[in-house]
Design a protein that fits this description.
Length: 368
């Protein structure tokens, strides 16, 4: 168990800054997710905790103790990668036992036996311990790889996209299993992913990283409902949030926002506090974020709704995404798979202003 602190960490590869003044505190026993696009610096950050990458600046601390000069083999971190790298000629039992047989641990046979069975039970592979890796499914192999890490009782578990290569169904299964297993890990977990569903379903807290910088750290609710800027709002959510142009209009003491079409005025909710936030921001041009699941549509002509045409309709599993074209802007909405719809047909759209997230159109920062 360990609290991990990263203080002002900067890592450069030549002239390229891969980590830029990163500050993070990961709590003891926390399942902490690092989430960001390809090349954001996630793996570099994980390797910095492991001691495989040495930062030019900053401190890595475990339970308050500076680790910068501590060799990776003495940090008691366990890494699980996408590539599970099992020993092909050893049984599941021996694969899991292997770290405990290493000179670093050198446990006796009775302890090893107890530990291997403890871990195999947590991972529900105790019936497979006599098999060779070639006799396992990919999901089972991944569990053996996790078992090999778990058996060492690491201070911290570092997982780099460990289930990214599994097919969608298995990934879904492993996601819920990992979450369930976490309570038995009894260990701090730092989990790297670029998959939104993985990030929100696993993370107690999520750090969003981009271009080597931590953009926001928060619970899934915090990053979803109060994203600090448009980048986070866009990254967190599937299908992607709609961002539409809006402008503040004050008429007869009433506050409106003009969106998507000239003259389309939506009254701002009076009791939500958003009017004050918008006025206080000193800005009158916004981007309004609407989650696709909150946007309503109808094919019946209705006054007061935005009129557009159906631009596309695509199934994404058990639901579909309907995209409407309104002027030169597009709106994504969630629809049932069996919706009867034709391309270019008229569609009328209702934007739920009370659920809008407002961003500064210039800086893209969150307003309210
Ligand atoms: P992905 O999701 O694609 O694995 P990531 O967020 O894990 O990406 P990193 O692997 O940490 O990103 O890489 C961050 C940046 O640092 C990338 O631009 C990468 O090319 C660069 N980088 C990483 N390792 C090295 C290295 N050894 N030498 C030079 N550049 C590197």
């Amino acid at each position: 168990m360990a609290k991990i602190e990263l203080l002002n960490i900067t890592k450069r590869f030549g002239k390229f800054t891969a980590l830029d003044n990163v500050n993070l505190e990961i709590k003891d026993n926390e399942f902490f997710v690092l989430f960001g696009p390809a090349g954001a610096g996630k793996t570099t950050l994980l390797n910095t905790v492991a001691g495989l990458v040495m930062p030019e600046e900053g401190l890595v601390k475990f339970n308050g103790e500076i680790m910068n000069k501590v060799d990776p083999s003495h940090r008691n971190v366990a890494m699980v990668f996408e590539n599970y790298a099992l020993y092909p000629n050893l049984t599941v039992y021996e694969n899991i036992a292997s770290p405990l047989r290493s000179p670093l641990y050198k446990k006796d046979d009775a302890t090893i036996d107890k530990e291997v069975h403890r871990v195999a039970k947590i991972l529900r592979i105790d019936h497979l311990v006599e098999r060779l890796p070639s006799q396992l499914s990919n999901g089972q192999k991944q569990r053996v790889a996790i078992g090999r890490a778990l058996v060492r009782n690491p201070n911290v578990f570092l997982m780099d996209e460990p289930i990214a290569h599994l097919d969608a169904k298995l990934r879904h299964h492993m996601r819920s299993e990992l979450k369930e297993m976490q309570s038995s890990f009894n260990s701090t977990v730092i989990y790297v992913t670029h998959d939104f569903l993985e990030a929100v379903s696993l993370g107690d807290r999520i750090a969003i990283i981009n271009e080597g910088k931590i953009v926001q750290v928060g619970t899934r609710e915090e990053v979803y409902y109060t994203p600090c800027n448009e980048f986070v709002a866009t990254l967190v959510g599937e299908p992607e949030i709609n961002l539409v142009d809006g402008r503040l209009v004050v008429d007869n003491g009433k506050y409106y926002v003009e969106v998507m079409q000239k003259g389309y005025l939506m009254p701002l909710p009076e009791n939500s506090g958003i009017i004050k936030k918008l006025v206080d921001s000193g800005i009158t041009e916004y981007h309004l974020g609407f989650r696709p699941n909150n946007v309503k549509y109808t094919f019946q002509k209705q006054d007061g709704l935005l009129r557009g045409t159906v631009y596309s309709f695509e199934s994404i599993g058990n639901k579909a995404v309907l995209i409407a074209k309104i002027g030169d802007q597009f709106l994504r909405m969630i629809a049932p798979n069996d919706l009867q719809v034709k391309l270019d047909q008229d569609v009328y759209v209702e934007l739920p202003i009370s659920k809008a997230t407002f961003f500064n159109a210039q800086t893209t920062q969150f307003i309210g």
